[in-house]
Amino acid sequence: MNEIFASAPGKFVILGEHAVVYGKPAIALAMNRRFYLSVRRDDEFKINGDAVDIRANPHLRYIASRNDMVPVSIHMDSKIPTGSGLGSSAALSVAFSAAMRALNSRSISKEEIAKEAFEAEYFSQGGGSPMDTSASANGYGIALNVHGNEEDRLWDISKNGRSWKISRIDVPSMTFVIGYTGVRAATGPLVEKVRKYKDGNRFASDIIDEIGQITLEGLAAIESNDVVKLGELMTEDHKLLSILGVSSNELNRLVSASVPYSYGAKLTGAGGGGSMVVLTDRPDKVCEAIRSRGGMPFIVKTGVDGVKVSNKNEID
Ligand code: MEV
Hints:
This protein is α+β, with helices and mostly antiparallel strands. It is built from nine helices and 13 strands.
């Protein structure tokens, strides 16, 4: 029986989360934690051997519906904690889209997969941007809605009157540490919280504009390898995200503990729990500081490839 194997990386956001939902610039890097899965035809939907109602998982349901709801047995193994702000649901959508497209002899271009996975995320979250799914599909580094060279443009995505231009960027050779709070936070409600704040408040729109501005400055800092400037901007971004109401006590504790040993630190992803990211040249000190405040640190490896798909079990 034909079995298809796929994997896709998680991501972290250097700058621009939440504001990117409104078409502002953002920068994200794929990282060395992946979602692995395989699919093969079966007489009912199964996950890791158990029969399931596929409609209970909106990501899987959306992608299955694009493949005529033909039942498959899915095996999953994720190295990205769920609800950690590190793109686990995007990586699931990307890997499942790739595997199902391959199984049904549809195109497995990274662009097609990124677009289908974004639709699945949007359907599931009720909103959001194509940042996480594009970072996971493409891998390496991406920027959204920045002015750059035409040859760096990967693809454009539009939805409900908003549009995002997605470009590749060189992955900075800088050291980042992730600190996971251990608190799971779903993205949809946090995106909705910011939307409500923005709809009722001109001040929130100004904060979102400022995050966009900071992100453009951050991209210039990355291009000139200016860690000091980038770190300052990251810490500033954390303050702006806190004003938007998406930080938490746990995140603030890990950020404060890391700042003395780093260029800068901020929450990464949707917030509300989840993870933070630190730019540092003292990663061991930062890991110790995060651990001492109850967080789970790891030194992240970047420059990793995006979605991979194969009919052999050789996917890494
Ligand atoms: C989540 O990783 C990033 C957000 O900006 C939501 C999105 O872009 O869809 C909070």
